[in-house]
Design brief:
This protein is an alpha/beta fold and about 375 residues long. It contains 15 helices and 12 strands. A 5-stranded mixed beta sheet has the order 10-9-8-11-12, with helices on both faces. Strands 1-2-3-4 form a 4-stranded antiparallel beta sheet. The chain binds adenosine-5'-diphosphate. The site of adenosine-5'-diphosphate has 13 residues, from helix 10 and helix 12. Its main location: cytoplasm.
């Protein structure tokens, strides 16, 4: 459970942190405030207890003096289906809809609801706002979001492309618009443990690589991304896999981990590749090829490109991956400055480049906080 606390008036970040290993052994809370980072271990069995621990820590550290100071809480909710296209104030009806949508995101929506309910119990006065990871992609056209399977399944089960990482892609879209002007044709490569690419026209999602689920598209830390769908039934038959086992293979045992055989973490893969580990080299090449193929295909969909952005853990920190991708786009007149790339400068394209290439740290929490602020400002002022 990640969090950031903002001052509503000044938009200043007061504290941020993360709970890890909730409900597993040695859960920890790492919190940074006033330039200091502390890690504390605590006995947290579930998300409810994590919220309680967070409230107590905020009080103990004097970040807030009273729980009543917290006037709004924003939540990242994975799946908003076709119902939620914008940040939404949480009501009982909204909670029920998020619960219904758990069918489409069984690993995420139930946990998101737990968080919403836990905060509600500790902060009944606060306005709760759900910000959906799918919402940004609701501008996709039918011909991009519809799968070429029997049409009735789209109607019957909602099987279509939804896309994820929408909060991150939207943050990047807003950032680029604010600092460089609204780009007509932009591609954002969000490369983290989960990775996705979004093609944007005039700042709006045009198409994106994640699909009905966040397993689709690029190769990821442990997810395979797009593969021939017949591999699934082949493995089910020949390895005697159940549905759950095949899910595990596709979501937990594939990607960087599956190819390297030792890690899903790009830092480990890059290090091993420099030491001559051939499986790590292969993992790096497949990862980069997938990004190149998708960026290339989205350039065709957009009929050109003005701005290419790299973001998230790998996008922000891996000069190697950025270089591997960019050196295959030189036919478009895209040119990066090696030094700027090594230094992780914000603009890594050279002065000759026909396409701007940017490295921008994503900040989903900031966008969520802004959504909460907007909703609070829309509340009627009590006389
Ligand atoms: P999540 O999708 O969980 O939010 P992140 O956006 O934090 O993930 O990205 C995690 C990925 O970023 C990991 O594969 C990690 O190895 C990679 N990463 C972080 N720092 C570096 C670095 N300096 N060089 C290469 N990869 C990095």
């Amino acid at each position: 459970m990640k969090f950031q606390i903002y001052d509503l008036e000044t938009s200043k970040l007061l504290a941020k942190g993360i709970f890890e290993r909730i409900g597993i052994d040695h859960p920890t809370l790492t919190i940074s405030c006033q330039g200091k980072k502390v890690e504390q271990s605590s006995i947290i069995a579930n998300h409810h207890e994590a919220v309680q621990e967070l409230m107590q820590t905020l009080l103990d550290r004097g970040i807030i003096l009273d729980l009543l100071e917290i006037v709004g809480v924003g939540h990242r909710v994975a799946h908003g289906g076709t119902i939620f296209t914008k940040p939404t104030v949480v009501t009982e009806l909204v909670e029920a809809k998020i619960e219904e949508l758990a069918e489409l995101a069984p690993l995420h929506n139930p946990i998101n609801l737990l968080g919403i309910r836990a905060f509600k119990s500790y902060l009944p006065q606060a306005l709760e706002v759900a910000v959906f990871d799918t919402a940004f992609h609701q501008t996709m056209e039918e011909a991009y979001y519809t799968y070429p399977i029997p049409y009735e399944y789209r109607e019957k089960y909602g099987i279509r492309r939804y896309g994820f990482h929408g909060i991150s892609h939207q943050y990047i879209s807003d950032y680029v618009t604010e600092h460089y002007g609204l780009p007509e044709k932009m591609i954002c490569a969000h490369l983290g443990n989960g990775s996705s690419i979004c093609a944007m026209k005039n700042g709006l999602s045009y198409t994106t690589s994640m699909g009905f689920t966040p397993t689709a598209g690029l190769m990821m830390g442990t997810r395979c991304g797009d593969i021939d769908p017949m591999i699934v039934s082949f493995l089910e038959k020949h390895e005697n896999f159940s549905g759950n086992q095949i899910d595990q293979v596709i979501n937990q045992k594939s990607g960087l981990r599956g190819i390297s055989g030792f890690s899903s973490d790009m830092r480990d893969i890059e290090l091993a590749a420099t030491q001559g580990n051939s499986r790590a080299e292969l993992a790096l090449d497949i990862f980069a090829n997938r990004v190149i193929e998708l960026v290339g295909s989205y350039i065709s969909s957009l009929n050109g490109l003005d701005v290419l952005v790299f973001t998230a853990g790998i996008g922000e920190h891996s000069a190697t991956i950025r270089k591997k991708v960019c050196q295959r786009l030189t036919f478009l007149g895209l040119d990066i400055d090696d030094k700027k790339n090594q230094d992780h400068a914000e603009e890594i394209s050279s002065s000759n480049s026909k396409i701007k290439v940017l490295v921008i740290p994503t900040n989903e929490e900031w966008l969520i906080a802004q959504a909460v602020k907007e909703k609070l400002e829309q509340l009627p002022v009590l006389a």
